[in-house]
Specification:
Blueprint (H helix, E strand, L loop, with lengths): L20 H22 L4 H28 L3 H19 L5 H29 L2 H33 L2 H22 L9 H4 L3 H8 L22 H11 L5 H28 L4 H29 L1 H22 L6 H34 L4 H29 L2 H32 L25
Helix pairs in contact: 1-5, 1-6, 2-4, 2-10, 2-14, 3-4, 3-6, 5-11, 8-13, 10-13, 10-14, 10-15, 11-12, 11-13, 12-13, 12-15
Length: 467
């Protein structure tokens, strides 16, 4: 299975209205850097305060993902949900510009987490509904390109703004304006399509699925994707454990475990990284540039990652990318052993964080293809629900562990733990490849997945007749 990812620059925009997603990605990527800097510089908080804010945000994202997915199925008001999402960001960014307490910031950031999944669900369903199956690959590639280009532009704006006046609070007003521009563009530039899809149908389209499980370049996490509402009734944990034991001959549990470790290490590292950069004396403008290097390399590598996977294979590339990312974490840990000048610290982190961006672009494509091939012929909705639940646990655990280490550990320890988690996932990826080959050539039938949704598989709406 190969996704159609190599579209840039041959076809940058599938429809003009997709440009409306560029300003919102610029706003959220800028805000992803501004928030920890607000805590550390403006509010004189600590690394632990950054970790607490991330824990609240990630928890809110996970809890609200189920609700927004259900609302998107029940009410096909894609344009309204997107405007609520983007307009909500604009209002909340403006509000943060006038507040000067950590408790208020915690509350605002939690609300941002509650509305974040609204746009993720609505945008993917909107593209599914507005484009024919023939156009869909280019449409989702264009959507990803708007996300990456917007993220890079947001960091460039943040760099020049802080370089000129070093005023983080006033930058929030610029980010609010960008979010408002997207809200207005979507409201006047897009009409709700006559046909409607459900979140479960996203799993049947590889480009759409890939877009939903990809790590966000703005928030540095993937918004959890639940095609079915989780079943939390009595016996759900027991059914999951029984299924996991029966599934051991299949590669998916190994893929889930390896992905969990990757998400855990990424959240732990990303939450800690900005406080570390502040601690070594980097200015706000320099920190924006370091993040720019990461997103810029992602933007360059991601469009060709599909071709690399087709040439070298997803199994090989996912291990190479994981290994390269773990080396980046170890290198960052090595920086903590030496006292260097501010310019030296800037150059070192600019290079290493850029390499990490390229690694995650390749990893995301390769790991997503390994996941998708394991879903073929399966109840993808239930399995993706399990994967998202594990990803959510990894996000909250990574943020919580960062808070604990902020009190009792050090930056060096965090980077070493992050690298260790990644290195631990390498044998799991190898075992997943072996399990896949055995299943492929042995022809063994995998067991049915556990019931993680409120509806049975037979009740899931299949693809529309036009497909």
């Amino acid at each position: 299975m190969v996704l159609s990812l190599r579209t840039w620059p041959r076809r940058l925009i599938a429809r003009p209205w997709l440009l409306g997603f560029m300003p919102i990605n610029a706003a959220t990527s800028g805000f992803g850097v501004v928030l920890p800097l607000l805590i550390l510089i403006v509010l004189h908080g600590s690394w632990a305060d950054v970790a607490v804010a991330a824990t609240l945000f990630n928890s809110a994202v996970i809890l609200s993902s189920v609700a927004w997915g259900h609302l998107s199925d029940r009410y096909p008001l894609r344009r309204l949900f997107l405007v609520v999402n983007f307009g909500g960001y604009a209002l909340l960014y403006l509000t943060l510009g006038y507040l000067h307490s950590l408790l208020a910031l915690y509350a605002i950031y939690t609300v941002i987490g509650l509305i974040a999944p609204a746009g993720a669900s609505a945008s993917n369903l909107l593209i599914l509904e507005k484009f024919t199956e023939k156009e869909r690959a280019n449409a989702f590639a264009s959507f990803q390109e708007m996300s990456m280009i917007g993220s890079v532009l947001g960091l460039v704006i943040g760099y020049f703004w802080t370089l000129a006046n070093d005023a983080l609070l006033s930058l929030l007003f610029v980010l609010a304006l960008l979010a408002a521009v997207s809200a207005v563009a979507i409201w006047f530039g897009v009409k709700d399509p006559p046909r409607s899809f459900t979140t479960a149908q996203v799993a049947h389209h590889p480009e759409s699925l890939f877009s939903r499980i990809r790590v966000s370049t703005s928030f540095q996490i993937s918004i959890p994707f639940f095609p079915r509402r989780p079943d939390l009734r009595a016996g759900a944990v027991r059914r999951f454990r029984t299924w996991a034991k029966e599934e051991l001959h299949h590669e998916l549990p190994l893929v889930f475990a390896a992905t969990f470790l990757f998400s855990l290490s990424a959240n732990l590292f990303n939450i800690t990284y900005t406080p570390y950069l502040v601690s070594v004396g980097l200015a706000a403008s320099s920190i924006f540039l370091v993040n720019f290097s990461n997103n810029f390399v992602q933007m360059l590598v991601f469009p060709v990652s599909g071709g690399l996977v087709g040439r070298f294979g997803s199994d090989r590339l996912v291990q190479r990318a994981t290994y390269l990312r773990s080396l980046g974490y170890l290198t960052t840990a090595g920086f903590t052993f030496f006292v260097v000048a501010r310019t030296g610290a800037f150059t070192e982190n600019l290079i290493v964080f850029g390499i990490l961006g390229g690694a995650i672009a390749v990893y995301t494509t390769a790991s997503s293809l390994m996941l998708f091939r394991g879903l073929e012929g399966r109840d993808a909705g239930s399995l993706l629900g399990v994967n998202s639940a594990l990803g959510g646990v990894a996000a909250v655990t990574g943020a919580g562990l960062s808070a604990v280490l902020a009190e009792f550990g050090s930056y060096r320890l965090v980077f070493l733990v992050s690298a260790g988690a990644l290195l631990t996932s390498l044998p799991l990826w190898t075992a997943a490849s072996v399990a896949y080959l055995r299943r492929k050539h042995g022809g063994g039938a995998p067991p049915p997945p556990p019931t993680v949704g409120a509806r049975r598989a037979s009740e899931v709406v299949v693809a529309a007749k036009s497909h």
